[in-house]
Amino acid sequence: MPEPYDPELGGPAEPKPYDPELGGPAEPKPYAPDELRALDRAHVWHPYGPMPGRQEPLVVESASGVRLRLAEPVDGQRELVDGMSSWWSAVHGYNHPVLNEAARGQLDRMSHVMFGGLTHEPAVRLATRLVEITPEPLQHVFLADSGSVSVEVAVKMCLQYWRSAGRPEKRRLLTWRGGYHGDTWQPMSVCDPDGGMHELWSGALPRQVFADAPPDGFDAEPDPAYVTHLRELIAAHADEVAAVIVEPVVQGAGGMRFHSPAYLRVLREACDELDVLLVFDEIATGFGRTGKLFAAGHAGVSPDVMCVGKALTGGYLTMAATLCTSRVAEGISRGEVPVLAHGPTFMGNPLAAAIASASVDLLLGQDWEGEVARIGAGLRSGLAAASEIPGVVDVRVLGAIGVVQLDHEVDMAAATRAAVREGVWLRPFRDLVYTMPPYVTGDDDVRRICRAVCAAAREG
Ligand SMILES: *Cc1c(COP(=O)(O)O)cnc(C)c1O
Fold first, then answer.
1. Which of 121, 258, 337, 412 is most buried by its number of CB atoms within 10 A?
2. Per residue in 13-64, pLDDT tens?
3. 87 Cα to the center of ligand 1, angstroms
4. How far apart, in whole angstroms, are the C-alpha atoms of residue 60 and residue 22?
């Protein structure tokens, strides 16, 4: 076997030491933080980032409970309370013994096998569990490998349903502005078309039908003019629209806005009346984040297709799922091509599925509603002071989500730095400083997160 070539040496680099017990190379020597950052800048893309990178990312060495441990102290802080749950996924915190055990147990059996022609207990158990805990009409589960892919699958299901029904012209989507559904092509086409991060692509994307953004306020009385607007728009496009797709109750990455659940009932009624399918993207809202297990529960309605992701695996591994009703599945199966032609390599990944089942059981085995309500109350009292900060235009809390909105684009570097000085990890965006803490965050740490949000709002 050739040795790796080292251009500086002009010959083979020193071979990695062989570990006879492992039967392979031993663990590589760790990088010094400076070295790691230099290689990171040179070679590694980060989310929504330039190449080479301009901001210095913090180097995380490990994570446990609600704390991220940095490789070296920053502003005197070696550990940061995570106010982001790693983009809303790590609801149980890090290094959780139950999830670790689920991972270890599955790792010793198999970490992956293909899903074509084979099946296994972790995937079947998870799918069955998801059918049990989601609204009753949702009966069939497609296990996808990320949230964006689960949205692609949802769109494919809806378009194919109408194709199979002899109405292939129903292939557009309708959504309201201000949404976010992922970064792959179809999901981008239903993200907010203006001001969102995908504006650049508006000319290249499939042209979808956009309603105005839903009026603000979870508790606000539904606006009759907006209800009419929704109904009329769906009616006007019913012949060409396959599905309405929305994030129920909370629009997340599109602006952290909350709306009345009443609009979801309006969508359900209009879709039923006008032969349009309804998709709820619960990737951000699922698994208790808004105070209900799924945000659809606030409205008491059930979609035809539903996407879940993010917190599905407790933040351990990438996995998402698209659920659909028997009507949708049977419709697809009646078609000229009676299959759903989608099958990612890592579909149903056993390791992710085993952890996801353990995460769901861990959630449902505790008073998660109480914990989310407790964090919500902590955020409400801790963030009340933020409304006095110059430049703050709104402070809002729903479930375990706290949002401070500014009248200007936040200076991300300054805001992040201010939070780090308080010992907290936050990742503000646009005009928003917000937090979605893990559900296991203690009251003291919730208070600390609130201080950090206020500091970030003040200095960002
Ligand atoms: C994060 C998110 C997605 C995309 O999920 P990825 O796993 O990042 O692809 C889609 N929809 C919503 C509502 C999300 O919050």
1. 258
2. 665 667 778 887 777 888 998 999 999 999 999 999 999 888 889 999 999 9
3. 9
4. 27
Facing residues of 278 across strands?
A: 244
Residue with tokens 């995460």: 359
pTM over 0.85: yes
DSSP string, 73-132: EETTEEEEEESSHHHHT-TT-BS-HHHHHHHHHHHHH-S----SS---HHHHHHHHHHHH
Reference 242, options 206, 212, 218, 217; nearest CA is 206
Catalytic-labelled residue, pool 156, 170, 292, 310? 310
Structure tokens at 384: 């009340």
pLDDT digit string, tens, across residues 274-283:
999 999 999 9
Protein residues with CB under 6 Å of any ligand 1 atom: 146-148, 151, 180-182, 247, 252-253, 281, 283-284, 309-310, 320
Give the integer Cα–Cα distance in Å for 260 and 249.
6
> In angstroms, what CA-CA distances link 97 with 122, 298, 341?
19, 32, 38
DSSP structural state of residue 409: -
Task: List the one residue out of 88, 163, 115 whose CA is nearest residue 429.
Answer: 88
- The answer to whether residue 180 is catalytic is yes
310 among known catalytic residues:
yes
* Structure tokens given for 385: 């002071």
Instruction: Assess contact for 191 and 198: CB atoms under 8 A.
Output: yes
137 Cβ neighbours under 8 A, 6+ residues apart: 302, 304, 325, 326, 327
Secondary structure (3-state) at 295: coil
